[in-house]
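Entry for the shared binder. Reason: the reviewer on the internal report wants the predicted structure included alongside the sequence.
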Amino acid sequence: MTQPFSIPLLGTGSPRPTLDRHQPAGLVRWGEAGHMLVDAGDGVVSQLLAADVPLEGVHNVALSHMHWDHILGYPAFVWGSWNAGRLKLRVTGPIGTEAMHHQLVESYYREQAEWAIDLGFPRAGFDDISVSDVPVGWQAEIDGCQGAAGPVYHPPMHALAYKFTYQDRTLVVTGDTAKCDELIAFCQDVDVLVIDACAAAPSPDLPPARQRLIERLHEFHASPQDCVDIAAQAGVGKVVLTHHLPGIEPEFDASNYRGEVVIGNDLDIIEI
């Protein structure tokens, strides 16, 4: 019997948030209760609630990299989910994840956590947090789903893509990346690819300084056309474009791609 496997898109925006698009985050879900929160941009807690996800039930997190728009909501998630009753948490990410957790959560909130524990909060929810820096090639079995970390190109950051395989279906979530051969190989024949399409062509109506900034993004982000080309070269079944800049519509030619192209929006549920 085929079990559910999907990713609700919690945040499909950019470092410049809007009311329509929160900063990057998605919740991979499989089977009866399997899940992995991928990235935790600003607003992730409210978006989890909007998606009817109980905060106390989220205890797996994978971070793609440490740019602020992918982690600003992480401290709020740690505290909010603990407040809701979460007792354990496993966090995975590239080099810098352990340091980020120590600086943003452990160092800053330890005194407040001890105060909350004295009030009656369970110590396990704050102390039973496992945080690991992992390399490209990392693999783990997570509640019946096989997870793996793969390569992206997003200099100068340490960054990872994640692959999830469940009952012969596969999903890749890239985080931020420019087009690269290693990513194409990692995405070979996957069913769904959720990918950074931040480097969209700037509108000629934008101020020149803003146009130059957006053009520079192509050095370390994929364009919508790059995303479609990656999907075509890798034989991906469906490609979902995310990480959208405000006021810029993605443009691409998908005539050489046989799969489906989806412009991701906040709270869309993508079935795998």
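Summary line for the report: Helices lie at 44-50, 68-71, 74-84, 97-119, 124-127, 181-186, 208-216, 224-234.
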